[in-house]
Specification:
Elements: H1 3-26, H2 33-54, H3 65-74, H4 83-89, H5 95-98, H6 108-126
Length: 127
């Protein structure tokens, strides 16, 4: 297994853990929305990074979904999740979990659907 394949596999495993946490929290009406959406953001971030790694694209150490999204697009791949959603989901990585700032509106169903769509896409690209 090449180093790229190994790193992509590790990123996919991490994305799977975040996806599982997202789905568990999404079922609990008492779960904090910011924490739940943090896991959606993290799963999305790791899926984008896994695709980039597999394609040999070097990317900065970042949680910025828009930067990662743009890198994927610059490398002739189409992400099936709207850029606008990436912009709204991105801040859940850090800002809105700690600062008490009003977060952009991201519906739980919207986030769950986006992560599911990203999984299907990532698996197709990584085959």
């Amino acid at each position: 297994m090449s180093p790229h394949e190994e790193q992509a596999k590790a990123l996919l495993a991490a994305a799977q853990r975040d996806d599982k946490a997202l789905r568990i929290l999404a079922r609990d009406p008492e779960a904090p929305v910011e924490t739940t959406l943090f896991h959606a953001q993290q799963a999305m971030e790791k899926l984008l990074k896994a695709v980039l790694v597999t394609k040999g694209v070097v990317f900065p150490r970042t949680h910025d979904l828009l930067a990662l999204f743009d890198l994927v697009v610059e490398n002739d791949l189409q992400v099936p999740v709207p850029r606008d959603l990436m912009a709204r989901l991105g801040p859940y990585a850090v800002e809105f979990r700690y600062l008490g700032v009003i977060a952009p509106e991201v519906g739980l169903d919207e986030a769950l659907s986006a992560v599911e769509t990203a999984w299907v896409w990532a698996r197709e690209v990584l085959q």
